[in-house]
Amino acid sequence: LQTNTAGGDNYFICAAKAKRVIKITKRETWRNFCSKLTPETPTQEVWNMIKKMKNGKISKNPILHENGMPVKDERTQANIFAEKIEALSDNLHNQITEGQKLTINQAKEESINTDYNKRFSIEELRECIRTLPSEKATGEDDVHNMFLKKMPASKQRELLGLINRSWRTAEIPKSWKSSLIIPIPKPGKDHTNPDSYRPISLLSCISKIAERMVNTRLQWFLEKHNKLSPTQCGFRKRRSTEDPLVRLEHQVRACLINRQVNITVFFDLERAFDTVNHDQLIYKLASAGIKGNMLAWTEKFLKDRTFKVAIGNSKSEEKHLNLGLPQGSSLSPTFFNLLISDIPHPHNTLVQEYADDLAISVSANSLEEAITKIENAIRAIEQWATNNRLNLNPAKTKAMIFTKKRLPNPPTLTIKGNNIEWVKTFKYLGLTFDAPTLTWKSHIEETCRQGTQRLNILKALAGTTWGADRALLLQIYIVFIRSKLTYGMAAVSSAADSRIKALNRIQNAALRIALGAKNTSPITALQVEANIPPLDLYIREYCSKYYIKSRSQGETHPMMQDMLEDQAVENKLWTPGVFKKPFTKRTQQWMRWWNVPADLQIEDQPLQTIPPWNRPPLNIQLELTEPVKKGECTERLKAIAQATMEEKYTNHLHIFTDGSKVEKSTSSAIWIPEQNIKKGWKLEEGEHTTIMTAEMFAIKKAMEWTTLNQFFIEKKDIVIFTDSMSSLQALQNFSSSKSPSQKNQIYNIADLIMEKNFTITLQWVPSHTGLAGNEAADEAAKDAHALNTLTFCPLGPEEGKNIIRRAAHKAWQEDYN
């Protein structure tokens, strides 16, 4: 009996431990899942995860049916999918002219002035590996990204040799051109029908590295030489879906203000990516100036591709793809953008492009004039699509009229001999436009419905032990619900205040759930407790940041001419309550309310002047000779830093840099002990300049000094010490949006230094440890606040957003008071 009692006690102890482990694991699993949520995460995926956490079972996909009969064998199912996909890749019309073939062959043989064809460097490979997402499914070769990220330097060089051999010979391993396709059921469809599945393609991770390296070079070339359509906003840096949405909203608002008629046609390119003609694309590349290795490698990459379909543990027979771009390849969006880059832009016609989502819009003083303009534009688009072997789908092409005039029924528009349907509402890039006066009524009603559905997720989590953490619930609201409510708000913010208040009620309900508050709790107090501003204020902040972002891109941004220089709108006398202002006028008014100048000067985000394949390899060291931990004692940090300087940089010229910021002043300084040189700069716009910009400015000035004072250096190598880890990380990640102009200048100077046979190292050192050189630079930066002369240092986009953020927070504080 005693033994049984002891055993029972042990059982209960072990059971309690197991429950605790399960509880902790569930909480960590949920936290990890929440960290990966995005506005695009399907609601069903979140519900499935909740069911798993509650030990519920997720139902499997129904069995496929063929000819009315169920198909239970997984391999047979896989073959059914494979045959359907292969049938869509018919190559009967994959022909180009002899003249086009000659152009391609000549371009493949020519390599003059094409340094983008040089061998890839180890720096390009490492930059690519560093940015690989860790958790991505593997291709059929089962090589995982984590394996590639953990490769030692010797294996990296072997991989580089393999990629360069493929690049030089235009011979691509078969596994790089093979994909594994997983059919994913479309929500709300009949899952017994093979057509109700979306094929998701898994590619070789090694191939993806080579594709990324090629794509980086190709993108730079196309952007540098303006080979893409200026209105294309899809899959391009510093562009987003909001750009075409805001441009279209602006066009419609301007039309309503000027009492005109606007006609907008939304086109559907049927299976655009899947029907791309390979030869036509290669010809477009050759015509754009792509020659030699890049053209030959691309041709081999596109042709003779194969795939298998996987269902459960079974795979289909291998099939061939004769048309289309490989799904999941980083090159595919770039190829598609180039293919449609010659889309016509008829006079006085607004052309909108986001990948294969196309829209054209015209405004005129009468319906007849607008019809004439839009018909001419439609004919031009028809001819363009035919020339590029793209298929316009008449059934899904729709037209809308926006106006305040009373009009008769509009005449028929046609495309490919079929009538285009006139509609009152149309969903374009996630926003539902409603005719004739663009009130956003339909869009906001649908958004409220979806927001209410997503609130149910918060309610389901609030009563669990693993998901009821307040911080996690608020995180889910911000990422999964608020992002849905505010998507496209740069355009939708022209809606009536009463409609915006409907969205605000969704936020109020979410805060009460997340904070466990009663319905009678004052919402202003809950907003402060959650540190989440009222939704209408957040929308104004959101729009102002988008305005700053657009301004920072200068003339390259498609909005600039249409919005910031539209005199037809600019000179209009506004009548409150009669006309809704376009985005620019609305946002400028909000910024004036916050005492933020609408013409705030923000630096342009330039295209890097040095091609990525010629970028000098900056030697950036983020670690000391011994590892240090957070919270390490000051004396130990100082000792390790001094040991690093003595062991690695005894024969180097030492330069220390630092930045300093007080309430309304920002400064930078450098200190060169060997030359007893101390320099400081007080920066313009110091109130708004961030400390990171000051640190980057100091690094730039240190590098400038080395180029102008070589006779002091005595052919020594150079080391620049900085305590700004964030600055060095931004320099490592060149694609980062932080301080783009400063980074560009630093790399340009590094290029000059390398030409003069010097090497330069940027070494991180811990701050405030009593390290002599670092303390001297810190003192010099603080002294620079007293300077009378200001040095120009342009504000970056991040500083512009910070200005808006602080102004919005101040407005919130004043409203609360």
From TrEMBL:
Record protein name field: Uncharacterized protein
CDD domains in the cross-refs: Rnase_HI_RT_non_LTR (cd09276), RT_nLTR_like (cd01650)
Organism: Meganyctiphanes norvegica
Record PANTHER family: ENDO/EXONUCLEASE/PHOSPHATASE DOMAIN-CONTAINING PROTEIN, ENDONUCLEASE_EXONUCLEASE_PHOSPHATASE DOMAIN-CONTAINING PROTEIN
Biological process terms in GO annotation: DNA biosynthetic process
GO molecular function: nucleic acid binding; RNA-DNA hybrid ribonuclease activity
Matches recorded under InterPro entries: DNA/RNA_pol_sf, RdDP_mobile_element, RNaseH-like_sf, RNaseH_domain, RNaseH_sf, RT_dom
Domain Reverse transcriptase: 165-433
